[in-house]
Amino acid sequence: MLRAESLTLRQGSQVISRSLSLDFARGGITALVGPNGAGKTTLLRALQGGHRPSGGRITLDGLALTDAGRRRWQARIGYMPQESRASDGVTVLEAVLLGRAGTLAFHLPDAELRAAATLLQEFGLLELAGRSLATLSGGQRQLVFFAQCLAREPEVMLLDEPVSALDLRHQQTMMRALRRLTDARQLISVVVLHDLNLAARYADRIAVLAEGRLRAIGPPREALSAPLLSEIYGVTVRVLRDADNMPLVQSLV
Ligand SMILES: Nc1ncnc2c1ncn2[C@@H]1O[C@H](COP(=O)(O)OP(=O)(O)OP(=O)(O)O)[C@@H](O)[C@H]1O
C-alpha cells in the first residue's frame, strides 16, 4: 500500500495542497484527474520522492519516505514525467536498457537484451531500436519512455499524462499494457489523465483533484458526477452511460 497522509505541498511560497490524504492499493490503477494547475503533478512528484512535502508523510508498505531512504524508494518506482528527457544521442534500445541501469554492471547479459527487445516489440518499436531518440515523433518517444519504466520492473508506476501524444490505437496499447501488468505483477499504478473517458475505461478508481483538494475518489461511476465536473472545469458537463454502463463524459458548448 502506498499512502499519503496529511500532505502539505508547496511550490515556492504557494501552498498547493493542505491535509491531502489518499491511499493506493496493490493491483489497482488510480487515475488522477482534474483541471490544469490542480496539483496533480506536484502530488505525483511527491509520491516519487522528487518533491519534498512540507508536512505529512508518505509510506510504502508502512515504510516512510525519508531523505536518507530516497534512492532506495525511487528504485522501487517507475516514474514517467510529462516530458521525459534523454540526451538526443541515445538510441531507442539504449533508452530502454537505461531503465535497467540499477541492475546492470559492465556486462550486458543476453537475457537483458531479449527482455528489452520483447518490450520494444510489444509497443511496435523494434524497427526503431537503433534510431536516436532525437529522430522520433513525440508519441514514439512517449512509448519508449513507457517501455523504459516497465524495464525497471517497478512495484509502483507513476505516470504523468503518458498518453498525451498518442493516437487512439497507441492509447489503448499503453493503457491495456498498464492494466495487464498491474494485475499480473500486483503493481500500484497511479496515472494522471485529462481524458476522463479513458480514465473511466481503464482505472479502478478515479481521484478528482481541484485546487489541491481531493474532491472525489472512488469507482468511475461514483467519482465522475456531472455537477462536480461542471463546477471544477467551469463548463457544462453531461455524464452519459456507454453500453457497459460506464460513464461517458461530454462537455457541452
Ligand atoms: N516549479 C514551479 N514553481 C512555482 N510554481 C509551480 C511550479 N510547478 C508548478 N507550480 C504551480 O503549482 C500549481 C500546481 O501545478 P501542477 O503542475 O502540480 O498542476 P497539474 O494539476 O499537474 O496541472 P496540469 O494539468 O496543467 O499539468 C500550479 O498553480 C502551478 O502554477
Automatic annotation (TrEMBL):
ABC transporter domain span: 2-236
Annotated signal peptide: none
Molecular function terms, GO-annotated: ATP binding
Superkingdom in the source lineage: Bacteria
InterPro entries documented for this protein: AAA+_ATPase (IPR003593), ABC_transporter-like_ATP-bd (IPR003439), ABC_transporter-like_CS (IPR017871), P-loop_NTPase (IPR027417)
Residue spans crossing the bilayer: none
Keyword hit for RNA-binding: no
Alphabetically ordered keywords of this record: ATP-binding, Nucleotide-binding, Translocase, Transport
Summary of the function given for this chain in its UniProt record: Part of the ABC transporter complex HmuTUV involved in hemin import. Responsible for energy coupling to the transport system.
Protein name in UniProt: ABC transporter ATP-binding protein
Source taxonomy: Bacteria, Pseudomonadati, Pseudomonadota, Alphaproteobacteria, Acetobacterales
